[in-house]
């Protein structure tokens, strides 16, 4: 799963920051906005040329980046460009949190979208508790991500925001992924150790 996710992380997180920052330094804000939009649409074209399907989320991301870039160009503010996804991160945090008292952990939905799991396994009480706890963890991770992002965005330069925020968020995400994977392995060991019912 990690080898599968690594290229997507590089394409979706590291490369866009590098493209935006390089264009920002060389061409200014408008050049950086054009480069950011071009990167996303270039990814769509690349998939089409290679005969691959274009995920719906990528199309939504392209539309979102286009709107963000347009608003940032009109306001002449890079803060506007980065504020919108940060607010989106905060909403994701609240969604993970809200899924817990509803007893429908969002972490379970995300996990089963990535890796199909048997329904009987998912109904197991220990597995259900695991996904509730992991939903709380990811709610906290996204809330911290948003808080760090907002603080850096309003108190530091755009260059500092791009590199420091990206590094901190990546490190925080890596820790959360490690905790999630180790917790899931522990959960599996307990479930597998139980006698068949």
From TrEMBL:
Keywords: Membrane, Transmembrane, Transmembrane helix. It comes from the Bacteria. The chain crosses the membrane at residues 20-42, 54-74, 80-100, 130-154, 160-184. The keyword Calcium does not apply. The keyword rRNA-binding does not apply. InterPro entries: UCP010219 (IPR016566). This is Intracellular septation protein A. It comes from Thermomonospora echinospora. The lineage of its organism: Bacteria, Bacillati, Actinomycetota, Actinomycetes, Streptosporangiales.
């Amino acid at each position: 799963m990690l080898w599968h996710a690594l290229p997507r992380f590089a394409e979706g997180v590291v490369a866009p920051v590098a493209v935006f920052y390089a264009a920002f330094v060389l061409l200014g804000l408008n050049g950086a906005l054009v480069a950011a939009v071009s990167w996303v649409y270039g990814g769509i074209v690349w998939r089409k040329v290679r005969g691959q399907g274009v995920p719906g989320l990528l199309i939504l991301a392209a539309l979102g980046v286009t709107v963000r870039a347009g608003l940032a160009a009109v306001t002449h503010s890079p803060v506007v460009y980065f504020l919108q996804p940060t607010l989106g991160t905060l909403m994701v945090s609240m969604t993970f949190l809200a899924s817990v008292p509803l007893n429908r952990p969002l972490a379970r939905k995300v996990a089963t979208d990535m890796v199909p799991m048997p329904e009987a396994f998912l109904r197991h009480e220990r597995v259900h508790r695991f996904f509730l706890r992991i939903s709380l963890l990811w709610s906290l991770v996204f809330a911290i991500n948003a808080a760090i992002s907002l603080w850096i965005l309003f108190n530091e330069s755009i260059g500092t925001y791009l590199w420091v925020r990206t590094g901190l968020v990546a490190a925080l995400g890596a820790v959360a992924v490690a905790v999630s994977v180790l917790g899931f392995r522990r959960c599996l060991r307990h479930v597998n150790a139980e006698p068949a019912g």
